[in-house]
Amino acid sequence: MSNHDRMQAYHILNACLSKKIPLSTVMREKEPVAPYAKVLCFGVCRHYFRLYEIIKKLTTKLPKDEVLVALLMGLYEIQYLEKPEYVAVKEAVNILHVAKKLWAKGFVNAVLREFCREKVTVLASLADNPGFKYGQAAWLITKVKLDWPNDWVGILQALDNHPPLTLRVNQQRLSQAAYLEKLKSEASATALSPVGVILTKECSAHEIPGFSEGEVSIQDESAQLATVLLDVKPHEKVLDACAAPGGKTCHLLEVEPTLDVLALDISDSRLKRIQSNLDRLHLKAVLKTGDASVPDTWWDGQLFDKILLDAPCSATGVMRRQPDIRLQRTDDSITEIKLLQASILRSLWPLLKSGGLLVYATCSIFKDENEHQIRAFLKANADASVQPIPPSYGHITDVGCQVFPGDNNRDGFFYSVLLKR
Q1: Please, is 30 exposed, middle or buried when counting C-beta atoms within 10 Å of its C-beta (0-12, 13-18, 19+)?
Q2: At the fourth CATH level, which superfamily is domain 230-420?
Q3: Going by DSSP bridges, is the β-strand pair 237-241/304-310 parallel, antiparallel, or unpaired?
Q4: Per-residue pLDDT at 1 exceeds 80
Q5: DSSP 8-state symbol, 324
Q6: CATH of segment(s) 165-218
Q7: Annotated catalytic residue, options 41, 250, 313, 363
Q8: Active-site residue 41, yes or no?
Q9: In the CATH hierarchy, which top-level class contains the domain 3-135?
Q10: What is this structure's pTM?
Q11: Of 77, 288, 377, 415, whose CB has the highest number of CB atoms within 10 Å?
């Protein structure tokens, strides 16, 4: 790895930590991102709360912003990448030199060297610290405990694991079995999705066989099943609300190419990502910029046969794939998200035909965004009823299905299928 890789990671992490910009957003802006820079960025975010607890043990003078990032990177290399200690210390100090934070070089050098000397003692003192043990903020640990008193340990442990690379086979091009035959022993079938494939080795998108040709897309099995639950029929008019980056839009058209699909998203730039995916897969949909909670600004008055609402959420169920989520969310942000979800649900329901289905989906593990949200909606809408979901999908409740992170190698997810009577 070069000094360039570390400096690139340093700048990306600064934007992510100090400005609360999602890691994926910063990385897209700075493409191409060096492989070792990615390792540092994802690793520091994944272990942020553990690293921060270590820092608290080593000093009462907690650093901020750029200095904190250099210290986190040095500690991560020592503790989790097991780099030679003298190299990690030297490079962390060198980052501050290049960044012209000369006043902090001595501080970072001293803290890292003390950790190297006292590592066994420091780690032993943190063995029972919840933030260190589970790598999560205190509020999140408490909330998971309250929601899932019998399952919280397994959920938190699963959020700490590395997820597999799961693909969705384009059934308009070939079958799941045909793609598995193509890859031989390098992949296996997903447990539930009829078009899902799990690769045995990690690789970039352009290295996936058939990806550029539109044979497959990257999509977790949980997300694939949300589309299956919509049960689309030929020529139906379908709304995919909050559609970016377009995985479910494309999956709908792969299942039934005759659909009249409107893919809606509030962001112009995110719509471009949907179009890019449609182009790669040779599919067509109508794309429109609009706020799903304000239909009057984009709806043409024609009712939809089906609506897929992949609602804005805390994304806590995909934290293993996006470790920076643990830095972006707060307890207060969950309250804001819950209000937005309720507003969108309330606004989209009148757009659905009588006898139509609305699938509400989130990649959250919190009941406030899932079970409680649907119960409140049902109480306010007498013409809505919950349709059954196969027990094999996950933890079945009276209003839907909760998938815990790691179940059958899937992301954490929630589904509810609502019929308009």
Answers
A1: middle
A2: Vaccinia Virus protein VP39 (3.40.50.150)
A3: parallel
A4: no
A5: T
A6: 3.30.70.1170
A7: 363
A8: no
A9: mainly alpha
A10: 0.94
A11: 77
